[in-house]
Every structure is written in C-alpha cells, then in structure tokens.
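Backbone Fold Data
Goal — fold tokens
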Amino acid sequence: RGIRVGYTPDVLTDATAELTVALLLAACRRLPEAVEEVKNGGWTTWKPLWMCGYGLSDSTVGIVGLGRIGQAVARRLRPFGVRKFLYTGSCPKPESAAEFDAEFVPLARLAKESDFVVVTCALTPATQGMCNKDFFGRMKKTAVFINTSRGAVVNQEDLYKVLANGEIAAAGLDVTTPEPLPTNHPLLSLKNCVILPHIGSATYATRSTMAVLAAENLLAGLRGDPMPHELVL
C-alpha cells in the first residue's frame, strides 16, 4: 500500500546487554530466592552450603548469536574472569570474535561445554524452538541458561521439565511465549527460574532515545524526506 515504516535500531544494545548480565547473576547466584528467604524468615544461622550458586570466574560462556547485543554481553562478562567464550550462529564472525578470543562451534558443542548459555540471536524459522529437549539434554547439570532474545526460540515445556528435574541448574528469561506470561504458568512455580517482564530496553535514556528517533522518522515521513531509519522492503 506504499506505507513507509520507520524503526529505531541500535539504541537498546547497551541496555539489553546490561539487563542480560543482571539476569544471569540473579539466576546463577539465586538472588530472587535469597530475597524471599530474608522476607519469609528463612534466613537463620549461617550454613555452609545454604543459598550457594555458581560463579563466572574460570567459567565457559556460550553465546548463541554474536551480534551487537551478544558482543556487548561478552564485553561485560569478560572482566568477571570468564576463562573461555564459545559462540554459534549462521556463520563465523572472526573479526567480532577476536576481541574475546571466542571460538565458533556447533550448537550441540556449545550446549555441552558451556557453564552459562546466553541466547541473543534473532528469531527466524531456523532458530524457532531451537532451545529444546535435545539442546537442554546436552547441557551440564550445573549450567545456567539465559534468554534475552525472543521467547519463541525456547521450547518452554522442555525448559520447565529440565529445570524441575534438576537437569540444569537455573534459567533466566526476559522474554517468553506468550507475553505477558500467564500467572499460573508452570515456569513461575520454580525457584530456579527467574522471569522478567521483557524489560531489556527499560532505561530512561534508552526509551527517550527510542521516542526521539520514532518522532524524527515520523516527521521526515510526513515531509516526504528520507527517514533517519527507514525499513526498506
């Protein structure tokens, strides 16, 4: 119908990467669970293994989708003492990977060797349902799974089963299917699953920049000028 479409690329990379790291730490160090223990009286005397989780130091981090956000996540995780980065995607990205000495590997190997799996890929027919029973079955029992890409990349029934059965340690999700996730969804009953309401871009600065870009696109379109960021089909 000749309708022009503007969009707001690149503005949420840093905010989403920061949120991804926060979600990873919340899941692996059991922060929501620990906060609840303080509130409900579960915090009593010191116990050697109470509230123990998993740390990033000397770990292997696997990133599914080493695009702008994936690289920004790796950049933030490296100072935590990560020993090795693995990544997978549609093709190797040697120039991007060089900054982190990251190794391009098949998805199955990434699942098998990673202590932390971080999903930051695009949702495509190839990635839909990619994180499924077979994928989770290859992961370590001590591994932590994080998804800040799109909910449909994950088979949530399979994720629930492996979390409930202790086949992986924990998961953190900022995206689900559907959104909002129903309050009676089985994943919400699990202590080892941290779920956020898709707030990857939710910083004041990021949302303000998005709004300004949207307005600039709109005004340019109304004037018949080139949009600062136009989707060309």
About this structure: Strands lie at 60-64, 84-88, 103-104, 116-119, 144-147, 170-173, 193-195.
